[in-house]
Amino acid sequence: MTSTDIKSMNLQEVTEVCKSLGLPSYRAGQIYKWLQQVGVSDYDEMTNLPKDLRNKLKEQYPIHGCEVELKRASKIDETVKYLFKLYDGNYIESVLMKYKYGYTLCISSQVGCKMGCMFCASTKSGCVRNLNPGEMVGQIHTAQRDSGVRVSHVVMMGMGEPLDNFDNAMKFLSLVGDENGLNIGMRNISLSTCGIVPRIYELMEKELQITLSVSLHAPENELRSSIMPVNKKYPLALLMKACRDYTEKTSRRISFEYAMVANQNDTPECAVMLAKLCKGMLCHVNLIPANEIEESSHKRSSEKTLNEFCNILRSRGINVTVRRSLGSDIDASCGQLRSRHEKQNSDGRK
To answer: Averaged over 119-127, what is the pLDDT?
Structure first.
């Protein structure tokens, strides 16, 4: 967070800004509500502030939100895929999904990703930079404003690795959960990680009521390292110990994400090994038909293989579901829209 990034500031920090400008204390509450609860992207929308104050704030404390560059709406299930443009010209993605309980927004935490997972389009061009807390909150505000619906649940599973942007991710959680802001309860927020073990322990100490989702994708080290390079630094023994410690400390169930890739990690032997890894842990396995992206030759598992894999886990007492694919007609998985948009822009400049 930079000193001028006012959308990333909490109420106390906005109060300090107002104090430095010689403003009465009540102005801080007004400004903070506009930024975090209403979600404005321009000071001119703050109609109860004097014009000269709005101009001064514009100059000294610009609002770094995001704007809709492109969007695609699914004709199948009402899923909406957003490509947001940031203040510096970078692009990120968010996905708005409708469920029986309301609307969930999948947000990004970085521009790109450095983790290098085989099946993820977000990582193919590397990580440009971290998002600040205001840019993460801004995705929710912009999606709500554009769609006209209230986002009640958030999943930090878009572009980027949230625990690689740890401090900003934690600040985002404090802002989004603030009763004076969006007031989204921690139990309605999921954070996904590829398995950065030291950060899992840091998160554990905060004892937040969020759902931790761990991208597992393989039940043994050699295979997982070939799919997810992070496993070379934090192999399964370290990761699974951290996960067990996390559940014991927080009493929160961990969700293990497992993307099913045909003829790689979807064999009956893999299912048996996965069941052994998870046995006795407070956890849930979420099987995901793998996304097929242009940059990779892998294919998703067949429905028959998915069902057989699922049955093996269930027969061994593992709580398991198969994730419903949303927005399949609009490239709703991470990184696909950004990658295609940047390629088209690049081709157009040649």
So the answer is: 77
Average pLDDT of the segment spanning 303-312:
95
Residue position matching structure tokens 């039940």: 219
Catalytic residue among 66, 93, 113, 127: 93
The number of helices, as runs of H, and strands, as runs of E, in the chain is 11, 12
Active site residue 334: yes
Q: How far is CA 241 from CA 40, 75, 97, 120, 227, in A?
A: 43, 43, 33, 26, 20
Q: Which candidate in 117, 120, 127, 334 is catalytic?
A: 334
pTM of the model: 0.91
pLDDT score at 118: 79
Q: Which stretches does DSSP call E strand in the chain?
A: 66-73, 80-86, 91-99, 102-106, 110-112, 127-130, 151-156, 189-193, 211-215, 254-260, 283-289, 320-322
Res 214: pLDDT = 98
Give the chain's length: 350
Residue whose entry in the numeric block shows the structure tokens 């032997």 = 269
Could you tell me the CA-to-CA distances from 199 to 78, 191, 224, 251 in Å, in that order? 35, 12, 20, 18
Is residue 3's pLDDT more than 50? no
CA distance 336 to 331: 6
